[in-house]
Design brief:
This protein has 15 helices and 13 strands. It has 541 residues and is α/β, with parallel strands linked by helices. Helix 1 runs antiparallel to helix 2, helix 5 packs across helix 6 and helix 6 packs antiparallel against helix 8. The relative contact order is 0.12.
């Protein structure tokens, strides 16, 4: 039963994320994964079943990584699965405590808090919260952030596991080696099972009653702005998607000119700003006159500032690059810029380059290291002050929150997903998963989110987390819409990472308490056995 619960749980959890996106499966998947670990006699066994479930989950969720090579996919999935292996062991220890579903839910969040940060800044893909873009639990993001959504999903799943175990006949429990002295479900528990089952659904759905904003505010400027997102597309896909750098730039210039012509023809409203995606020019427009002139020409044609995603030489550390968003004005050219704070390890820079490059020739495709910036991405682009993040940064809580708290009234996500986007089923899974994260961020921060992608998903999301417009994947195009600009700070913005760290500390306390109590109980049982032997000696004589 445990292998089935672990594997089905892992695959079901992956299906709760895009491209399937069955959010309701997440609590059920957590229940199955928890069942496979808390019913295991030994902690090492729970660790093993956690690893099995983790592999089933991450191999499916991260299948889009295979474009980088089978080894990259297997290594990343295995690394991520190790965190669920550790979670399985912790769950088995916490199972000894009263109200153990609450402890298990806290452990899920604690595991995510660590995985999101270590090593090399962490890898947050696969957080429970990011599966809930289409579920009632989404509303919780505005109160307790992504961590609060993860906790609600984990608690719901752990309580479903508790219900399932209470309904299991005593003989089957024994076969599971499940340490529970209650035998068959006592009459006093029968009502509780139903109550807990209802609560399990209620905890997951409580976010539906939390109000979500949809309109703008004018405390710090205009309440709305008309924004255009340009998806220029790329000549190819996979590892060679961006090899034709001049063609990629020309695609975005040309699509912006198409937009300008449609504005003049009265087909679409005139935008007040335009957003291009990450890597819309991999030719440094600050150093290459032709690239700079082409962008200025596009800005002059549309007549408003363009937020350009560019790769530029790092002026502070020779031999390294910056991944930046540059505000490019008509006639005047570049002004403000944001340097990506969180470059992707093994993608944008290579830890241990001198050693790894000897053994893995594919790292030759990363000939230069990107350096990270130090400042939040707040840029004034026309009438809109944007909280700008670049690609994978949308997955990192602190990067988005810092930009919002620094004054961003809407969130722009400049992303290049052409490497992972291809024709066929699941070809846009990476960009769809990233878009789901953006829906969580919209509610978490009460901001519209504007996703500009090279090849998809380009989308406009309102502060309620609803996708109001989306461009076709793998085709050049643009979106124009009026979006709200907001100044209010959500409760989640105010509390920041405190919920995560409090739950992390609670789990440390719970594990310590469980271990101490277990050792004390084992010692007392041993003493009782010794006393019993001593009492029997006179009789035997």
């Amino acid at each position: 039963m445990r292998p089935l619960a672990a594997i089905v749980g892992g695959v079901s959890l992956a299906a709760s994320f895009p491209p399937v996106g069955a959010s309701w499966l997440a609590p059920i998947a957590v229940a199955l994964l928890t069942l496979s670990t808390v019913t295991t006699p030994r902690v090492r066994g729970a660790c093993g079943w956690g690893m099995v479930g983790g592999l089933a989950f991450f191999l499916v969720l991260l299948a889009w990584i295979d474009v980088l090579g089978l080894d990259a996919w297997l290594l990343l999935a295995t690394y991520c699965a190790l965190w669920l292996a550790a979670l399985g062991a912790v769950n088995r220890v916490l199972r000894r405590l009263p109200a153990w579903p609450v402890w298990v839910a806290a452990a899920w969040v604690a595991q995510e808090a660590l995985r999101d940060r270590v090593p090399y800044g962490g890898f947050p893909w696969g957080r429970l919260a990011f599966s809930q873009a289409q579920s009632p639990a989404l509303g919780l993001a505005s109160v307790l952030g992504a961590a609060g959504v993860s906790f609600a999903v984990a608690l719901s799943g752990a309580m479903l596991c508790w219900v399932a175990l209470r309904l299991v006949p005593a003989g089957t429990r024994s076969a599971l080696d499940f340490a529970d002295n209650s035998g068959s479900t006592p009459p006093t528990w029968r009502g509780s099972v139903g109550i807990v089952a209802v609560l399990a659904v209620g905890v997951w759905a409580v976010g539906a009653i939390i109000p979500r904003p949809t309109t703008g505010e004018d405390a710090a400027g205009p309440g709305t702005a008309t924004v255009a997102l340009v998806q220029g597309s790329v000549p190819g896909y996979g590892l060679d998607a961006m090899s034709q750098r001049r063609a990629v730039l020309n695609n975005h210039v040309n699509e912006t000119k198409v937009l300008a012509a449609d504005v003049r023809a009265g087909k679409v409203p005139a935008p007040q700003l335009v957003i291009w995606p990450e890597n819309s020019t991999d030719i440094d427009p600050l150093a290459d006159q032709l690239a700079g002139a082409a962008i200025t020409d596009a800005a002059n044609d549309i007549g408003v500032p363009i937020l350009v995603g560019a790769v530029v030489n790092n002026p502070t550390v020779p031999g390294t690059l910056w991944n930046v968003g540059i505000v490019w004005n008509p006639k005047a050219g570049p002004s403000q810029y944001y340097v990506k704070r969180h470059p992707v390890p093994f993608g944008e820079y290579l830890p241990g380059r001198s050693l790894l490059s000897r053994f893995i020739s594919r790292f030759d495709r990363v000939p230069y290291d990107f350096a990270g910036g130090n400042e939040p991405g707040v840029l004034q682009v026309g009438p809109a002050k944007l909280a700008d993040v670049i690609c994978f940064e949308i997955a990192y809580d602190e990067v988005v929150r810092d930009a919002v708290l620094a004054g961003g009234r809407a969130i722009s996500v400049q992303t290049n997903n052409a490497t992972y986007t291809h024709a066929g089923f699941g070809g846009a899974a990476q960009s769809e998963q990233q878009a789901a994260m953006s829906q969580i961020r919209a509610v978490e921060h009460g901001r519209a989110v504007l996703i500009a992608a090279t090849s998809g998903v380009t989308a406009i999301i309102n502060p309620a987390g609803e996708v109001v417009a989306q461009a076709p994947v793998l085709e050049p195009g643009y979106l124009v819409d009026e979006v709200p600009l907001r100044d209010s700070i959500t409760i989640a913005d105010r509390v920041g990472a405190w919920p995560e760290w409090l739950l992390f500390l609670a789990v440390l306390f719970g594990v310590t308490l469980s271990v101490v109590q277990h050792r004390k109980s084992s010692r007392l049982e041993g003493e009782q056995t010794d006393d019993s032997d001593d009492d029997s000696l006179p009789t035997e004589r």
